[in-house]
Each structure stands twice: as C-alpha cells, then as structure tokens.
C-alpha cells in the first residue's frame, strides 16, 4: 500500500481487539459480564478486501453482526444485551443503537463521531466545507487504486513523534507505534478511499429521535475530543442519559491509563448492572 500525504487530521479509530477494546472487555468480564472484543471488518484478523478499509457504515454493521452472534449463545439473555465502544468505536456503537433495538443500553468512552471529526477537526475548529478536498482525495484514490493495483493509504495517528501537534496526539503516536500498545494487526493507517464514506457520515444521525436507550458517556476533562461526547449527550433522546467526566484525563489516558480506566469501569459496570 502506498501512503498519501493529506492534511494532518488524526482520528485514532483503528484499534485491534488486543488493544483498548480488549482492556475494557476484560475489565467488564471481571465484573461478571459476557464480553466480546473484536477486529472490525477489513482489519486485524477479520476478513475482507481491501485491507484497512475504514467504512463507517460497515463498522456500524459490525456491531449488529456481533449481536447476531451473541443471540446464538445459550448463556446470553437476548433481552439484556448492551454495547460499549471507545473513540470512533463509541460513535459506531451509538449509531448501531439508533437502528438496532436489540441494544438495550450503551456506554461510550472518549467518543468520536468520525464524520464530524474529519469535517470539523480534532478540536472542532474547522468549517465543514473545508473538508471538501477530502472527498476529492477519496474519489481520486479509487481511480488510482484501480489503475495502479496498489491501495493508497492515510495515517490514523501520527506516524512519527515529530508529526504530533500536541501532547495528547503525541500519546496517540506512542500508543500505536511503540511498545506501549502497538500490535502487528493494527498498523496505524487506513485506505484513502475510506474518505468518501467518512466525510458524509454522522454517527449521531437521528439520535434526537431514536437513541432512546439508557446511555452512559465517559470523557476526559482534558480531551480535545470531548466536544463529541458533549454533542452525543445533547442529541440523545434517552430519558436516562448520564455523563461522567474523568478529571485530568485526556483522550488517550482513557485507553490504558490504569487509574483512568479504573474510574471509567467504576461508572460503566454499575450502569450496565442497573440497565440490563
């Protein structure tokens, strides 16, 4: 795959099951829940071509596909299935809950609405129209992919420490590209053609009407991404929506910071016990 230089706009969504998703799944399992951490379609050990495709509509469908599997397990009560996601996975989880009523409660940690993030930037300081070149880039990538036989790619997090514009995103580089949490099946890039679907996607579409399930939102007080958790809280129509702020934590701290993860679990576990 050939890398393409585009404006640095990290979205930190490609997390393997061995990384933070697995961390939270393990911690919740210790509290007595049946949990599944999985690799998304086209990524990790899951199937699909082209590799490293990040199609948000398929990512949302992945959540429902996992629920399909859960309903086949004799020890799972189908009326008590919840869903929890981190970063862009949180956005995909919210989107799945909007359209899949089998999800009875949802939890989010460091939520990212990938469409909003790409349109408006990590800290919500970019106009949506300024993302139009991304649509062009994704469209052109499809043509070059076919003509060259090689898929163009884009970084998901800073590929080098020197690329990071701030400490929070320096930690993203450290998480994905150093022994802190790097993993062979999570290379830190996606296909450039993914931009076509990402730019026009809204993980919270119709949340103000259909996101009626109980929801527990967790975000760090210092997270540049916090505005997307705020937006989810404001837009969800649920009559039982809760928002916990982890003081002093940034976006990445909630991936693997022991104290911060423990605090998140101390909120999420009782929430799911109560609502499922």
From TrEMBL:
Record key words, sorted: Hydrolase
Molecular function as annotated in GO: hydrolase activity
InterPro entries according to UniProt: AB_hydrolase_fold (IPR029058), Polyketide_trans_af380 (IPR051411), Xaa-Pro-like_dom (IPR000383)
Entry coiled-coil feature ranges: none
Location of the Xaa-Pro dipeptidyl-peptidase-like domain: 14-135
Gene3D superfamilies, alphabetized: 1.10.10.800, alpha/beta hydrolase
Pfam families, alphabetized: Peptidase_S15 (PF02129)
Record's protein name: Hydrolase
Organism: Escherichia coli
Lineage: Bacteria, Pseudomonadati, Pseudomonadota, Gammaproteobacteria, Enterobacterales
